[in-house]
Amino acid sequence: MTPDELKALVRCVPDFPKPGILFRDITTLIGHGAGFAAAIALLAERAEACGAQAIAGIEARGFIFGAAVAARLGLPFVPVRKPGKLPVPVLAIDYALEYGTDTLEVDPDAITAGQNVVVIDDLIATGGTAHAALQLLHRAGAVVSQALFVIDLPDLGGAQRLRNEGLVVDVLMTFPGH
Asked: For this structure, is 81 an active site residue?
């Protein structure tokens, strides 16, 4: 399937999570066997082309795509978790949200120093969470030169923010708005 065919599988839900937002729901994409397989194949092709040695997925929907890509390529999967979910000492980073702060954590033993890690998530909007994940992975010793997203909302500037920091950002599809 082409990226345009995959884009047609993404459901748009108006006024979620609040009025004025048009939510891009990947549930319908992952619920379509051939579509989900095609999305994973496209992401895996891109991760392999940049020499990925591990795949990091950002909780929660990045786990869906990232773990599938890692399995397809036979690579380790590194979960970038919300706080309090890992049973071992972690590296953590706090980051700003539109209304407050949040934290991401990673098991530092999940990454080998100098390992080429590709970050995968379902969607990039403002880039705040992805930026925090990249900083955290760098602190753990990873070399992160590429991030892959299923959906980009370019009007919110997140992908460009990451590109401005020298990261290669690749997406399967874009949607206007927020």
From this structure: no
